[in-house]
Amino acid sequence: MMARTAASWAVRVKYLLLLMEKNTSKRRTDIAAETIGKQIVRGKLSIGQVLPNDQVMCETLGISRTILREALRILGAKGLVKAVPKAGTFVNDTDKWAMLDTDILGWLTDTATSGHLEPLLVEMIDIRLAIEPGAAALTASRAHAADRQRISELFQSLKFSSNFNIFLKLLGKSELKHINLFVIG
């Protein structure tokens, strides 16, 4: 059995803590994919880097080979990794990542404080700001009263979430005024 470094123990402890979180309905495969995905997004696994072999990763994460392979399949579908026969599994360049995937967006948001992904996040925000207001306006113009009520309720719940301060910082005063006008009237 390989000697475990302090770093591998830290990863294993984080993985076990994820398992014990309130949301126990998450499959072990999803937790493994999240753990590896966050390492990729945070730059701990560099772009172009070949991932450690299956045995090392399974031992580090405390998972079976079946779970690891399924987790890597999930990450491959998200564009984070690419398996090359007889060469290994490599971390893809960011232009291959499915940037609109909710998991990747969440991992990027969690990682935003590190600063190395700031230019990428700025681009993503620019794209979203270019597309979403028009899509929201079109949707709102065709909404029924019940739909408007539901949107208003969701917006009110957003005000009390931890992400609302980030949301306010991203929006200018004019955009917030338009949102309030729609929600109120």
Oligomer: single chain
Name the CATH architecture of the largest domain. Orthogonal Bundle
**Compute the gyration radius: what is it?**
20 Å
Q: How would you sum up the global shape? A: elongated
Overall pLDDT level: 76
The CATH fourth-level homologous superfamily of the largest domain: Winged helix-like DNA-binding domain superfamily/Winged helix DNA-binding domain
Instruction: Tell me the major beta sheet.
Output: 2 strands, antiparallel
Explain what you see.
With 185 residues, this protein is mainly α. It has 2 domains: 6-96, Arc Repressor Mutant, subunit A; 112-184, no CATH class. Helix content is 64%, strand content 4%. Strands 1-2 form a two-stranded antiparallel sheet. Helix 2 crosses helix 4 and helix 2 packs across helix 5.
Would you kindly provide a brief summary of this structure?
With 185 residues, the protein is mostly helical. It has helices at residues 6-20, 28-41, 54-61, 65-77, 102-111, 118-141, 145-159, 164-170, 173-184; strands spanning 81-84, 88-91.
SSE layout:
Elements: H1 6-20, H2 28-41, H3 54-61, H4 65-77, E1 81-84, E2 88-91, H5 102-111, H6 118-141, H7 145-159, H8 164-170, H9 173-184
Antiparallel strand pairs: 1-2
Helix pairs in contact: 1-2, 2-4, 2-5
Task: For this entry, give a set of tags.
185 residues, mainly alpha, Arc Repressor Mutant, subunit A, two-stranded antiparallel ribbon, 64% helix, disordered C terminus
